[in-house]
Amino acid sequence: MSVVLNFKSHLSELFAQALREVAPEFANNGSAQVEILIERPKLASHGDYACNLAMQLAKALRKPPRDIAQALIAALPASEVVAKVEIAGAGFINVFVTTAAKQGVVRGVLQAGAGYGHVHLGAGRKVGVEFVSANPTGPLHVGHGRGAAVGDCLCNVLHAAGWNVTREFYYNDAGAQIDNLMRSVQLRCLGITPDDPGWPEAGYRGDYIADVAKAYLAREMVEADDQHVQASGDVNDAEAIRHFAVAYLRREQDLDLRAFGVNFDVFSLESALYTDGKVEETVKKLIASGHTYEQDDALWLRTTDFGDDKDRVMRKSDGGYTYFVPDVAYHLDKWRRGFGRVINEQGSDHHSTITRVRAGLQALAVGIPKGWPDYVLHQMVTVLKNGEEVKISKRAGSYVTLRDLIDEVGCDATRYFLAARHPDSQLVFDIDLAKSQSNDNPVYYIQYAHARIHAVLAQWGGDRQSLHHADVSALESEYETALLQRMIDFPQVIESAADDLAPHLVAFYLKDLAAGFHSYYNASRFLVEDEKIKLARLALVAAVAQVVRNGLLLLGVSAPEKM
RNA sequence: GCGCCCGUAGCUCAGCUGGAUAGAGUACUUGGCUACGAACCAAGGGGUCGGGCGUUCGAAUCGCUCCGGGCGCACCA
Known about the structure:
The chain is of the alpha/beta class and 563 residues long. It has 19 helices and 17 strands. It has helices at residues 7-22, 53-61, 65-75, 99-112, 142-160, 176-189, 207-217, 238-259, 270-275, 278-289, 324-336, 352-364, 402-409, 411-419, 431-436, 442-460, 478-499, 504-523, 531-555; strands spanning 38-39, 49-51, 82-88, 92-97, 126-130, 164-171, 221-224, 227-230, 266-269, 292-295, 298-301, 312-315, 341-347, 374-378, 381-385, 388-390, 427-430. A 5-stranded parallel sheet has the order 9-6-5-13-14. A 4-stranded antiparallel sheet has the order 1-2-4-3. It starts with 6 loop residues before the first helix and ends in an 8-residue tail after the last helix. The protein binds one RNA strand of 77 nucleotides through helix 2, helix 6, strand 12, helix 12 and helix 16.
């Protein structure tokens, strides 16, 4: 007998068959349609799975829902998985799954190991995920940290859901902000500080600018994976300063990201889009498309043809391009690299670019689908320190850097904090709370479950491989079946997180799983006399540890065996 | 003014492809280590799901509207 673990789809098929018998016109190839929804009830007394089919059909069939439920149950094909079926409430059909069927998950988890939970939604298709993409004009702050945590976790989840994921970082290393950066460093080289009257309004005021200037004057070398830049020390060489400052700050950002456990496959430079001629090419294509026009010495794109509320300038009257032109060129490049799907994770303050970029891509008329690319926008992070909000402004030099957070509250806790909330909700990061109560952080609660299990397994000292074939038929208690069911849910959590682009679901799932384990731990003993019971329980908790570990790795959080 | 997001327990947040008695953490009260890790567990109080109207057998969830908060509305990026 093959082991059924995806009870949801199994039950869905059973109900589809029953439906064909009871109301054929609503079945798959019938004229009317109804969705067969199998959900997990909140209360255990309502069974393991519930189906609301009867209530959906009641009106059309003009029969009481409970009568329809009765008929559906009568028509339900036999299954080894189903222990009991009940009608409840207004007409819910509650299904109880046999404990024996649930027990199969233990072997399933232990054999699949790190692969347990993986699903095939993506079918190996390519998806490009761009995230962080901070301007190389200063250190990464909390907001970037949220982008890094959410984006990286999303990538992990998509990978687990069967997508072929590429992580990409885009550097806006051209344009006006970089000019400001260059000028700020140059002034610092000349000994002018932000407090001096000659300091420009748009200049960057942070202390790190002085560090860059000092390094430049000292003719330091910036070494990183893809770049080696030697400072000339010449205060009058604007190009050399620009080049060095960008390289210096990119290196700092890379180091921060690495310390945060986030790695990218591809780094794209805005400046390269100019030097490679991709910006020019995009402009020519847009002009050829007929969606552009000249007005007031500027070149405009008629983005209103594609749903924008007003047209946008492409080439300014001073001859330079606006930001969104290289952005369109960049996305055209992504499309040509074969990404049928692209997800951009950004702060919600960038949401106005969405319409523009999509409009530009549509104007190109190269076959890019309308809603391409996808966006995940995280809301702003406000930071509390000493009970007061810290205003983040690069220019003012007021900062809470990602590096500070990693140093003060740790990488694991920071990642968990930033990834464990819905991207749509604003986030208050209370630094004092995160620091002072770091032991109450939910991430430790989850890690503790993992460590506890490993302590038990170490105490036992037996061959862990032997647990893969343990007889688990003794696992019948309330605690045990609850844990079995939670582990069965894991693949569906990954599926939902990938579908909804909502990595925080993994964090909440893990908290529930850990809670289930801690309750079990306090209510039971594992190293008991009875060999069969002992091995069954050890197999169960070993499987739980595996799922906890798999989930923590999705979040980019470590799964320590001791803490 | 227009667009996007949010408003759920004192606080921080889940739940939102409509489902049954709205959940967790924290804080507060009480109990549990001479047995595998107490960074844990068990029990208790705490709610007009921002307000109103509507759709529905059924609304925290969908629609409209009002109120409140965040972000964005450049020939900046």
